[in-house]
Amino acid sequence: MLLKRIAILGPGLLGGSIALRLREVGGWHVTLWTRREATLPQLRERGVADAVTANISDAVRDADVVVLCVPIEAMGRLAEEIAHAAKPECIVTDVGSVKASVVAELDAILSGKCRFIGSHPMAGKAESGIDAAEASLFRETNCIITPTAATDAEAIDLIRGFWETIGCRVVSMGAGEHDECVALISHLPHLVAGSLVRAVADRNPRAFEVVGPGFRDTTRVAGGPPELWTGIMQANRGAILEAIDAMIAKLYDFRQTLERVAESKDADDLKNFLAVAKQTRDQIKFPK
Amino acid sequence: MLLKRIAILGPGLLGGSIALRLREVGGWHVTLWTRREATLPQLRERGVADAVTANISDAVRDADVVVLCVPIEAMGRLAEEIAHAAKPECIVTDVGSVKASVVAELDAILSGKCRFIGSHPMAGKAESGIDAAEASLFRETNCIITPTAATDAEAIDLIRGFWETIGCRVVSMGAGEHDECVALISHLPHLVAGSLVRAVADRNPRAFEVVGPGFRDTTRVAGGPPELWTGIMQANRGAILEAIDAMIAKLYDFRQTLERVAESKDADDLKNFLAVAKQTRDQIKFPK
Fold first, then answer.
1. Based on the domain organization, do A143 and A167 belong to the same domain?
2. Does residue B261 sit at the A interface (CB-CB below 8 Å)?
3. Do the beta carbons of residue A114 and residue A137 sit within 8 Å?
4. Nearest-CA distance from A220 to chain B in Å?
5. Could you say which of A28, A190, B119, B170 would form a disulfide bridge with B93 (CB–CB 3.0 to 4.6 Å)?
6. What are A62-120's pLDDT values in tens digits?
7. How many domains does chain B have?
8. A and B: number of Cβ contacts within 8 A
9. What pLDDT score does B262 carry?
10. Residues A9 and A107 in one domain
11. Are A141 and A205 within one domain?
């Protein structure tokens, strides 16, 4: 089976960037679905897709692959409609930042109707919305796919190939391990960035007048859309609570070390704390 | 008085970038001092300065302005030598990330010998050392200067003009307020980034295999040199301990909010936490 016709549900940063990338690749027929009928003329004019529609059944009827690019709390309702309209061989995936709950919900709805496999491309930027979309957004980023024991092997190969076409490096893991990993490297950084901004605002807002590039980068992710992130945080609450506890414990460790260190002697523990952090980070293979 | 001859003490990222910028501006005579005699041939070959030397007295004797670009714990010893060799009208400044302790120490040493005024250009990048230096490093960054009641007005004007030549926007504040501000927007982000890397490593190092650009940016500053940062953390310990407490309190706030939020209802507090962080950050005027 060759994937040629795609329905992208949700014309935001990720959906728009997938559409732009596929136009660059060529040979695809892209249908873009939006919930908001009023935006159809704009989307048509923009020309990122071969067809745009606000009707889900029309969008997915002939699709070889459907990608849900909507907030995770909106996915179940869309999956119900996909289950009625899509071909049995159609592969359905999503770009949600949480997988255990999404996979459980969508598997239950789509099982026996078409083939679902969860995805999470780890791409993003400060801006959101289709205006920020770009064909190169996914290039050299990691995309996690979360097949279950029941997922058919062809579907795994096809979705892996799809994300590689988009530009991703694909990693496969269980939905549970995915959620634990992203709680640590995506959800925790987001709430840490937000907490950092708010802690500074509480203590001395004048500090914002003299920020450097370090503060800008450390807090960048806090600029993401609060609605989207609220849904993510709720859906992955358990793993995130554990990640916060680990973070608070580590900060407290550092605090104790700093308090112990006298002005001019015995700074080895302090240097060691920072050196281990640097060494650990230096070994990470970052995308792009 | 016109500043024309400069001695830059310390051929690292900041010292090297100042030298490169002044060569671009033209009309300056730049002397670069290094502690390590063995590196003199390399520095000469590199051609970033008109003269390079390992002799402090030679470096500062004819200087109109001296900039200390060395770790803060090395500044006192260099200041003693500057006090013996520099002209009385010479303006001495530094690029240290902590000001109250540095200003107190250097004022005491240089008072009556030449004119000292503390500076802190808020510039940096992931790489350190002269290999990473670039003429544009300071462009549109903030530089804080910390004059005291005793600093003469001409010296303030001259040092302000100097940093503007280098490309900075200059902000003047007391050394104490400086230290409180940078504890919040520079030192706290550094230790937060380091703690984040270490918390993830403790809980599940496999998470590093799937990092995205968000984790890279949030932790970037943790890649800075541990020796340098150990000195900074020690020197600004009091303000940093208070900043850590504010950060832990804010994380705990978020934790409580997340725990309170049930799966599908009452997510307003959670969204509000994230929205206030985003709004606050959106209003910050970041450099570059």
1. yes
2. yes
3. no
4. 7
5. B119
6. 999 999 999 999 999 999 999 999 999 999 999 999 999 999 999 999 999 999 999 99
7. 2
8. 339
9. 66
10. yes
11. no
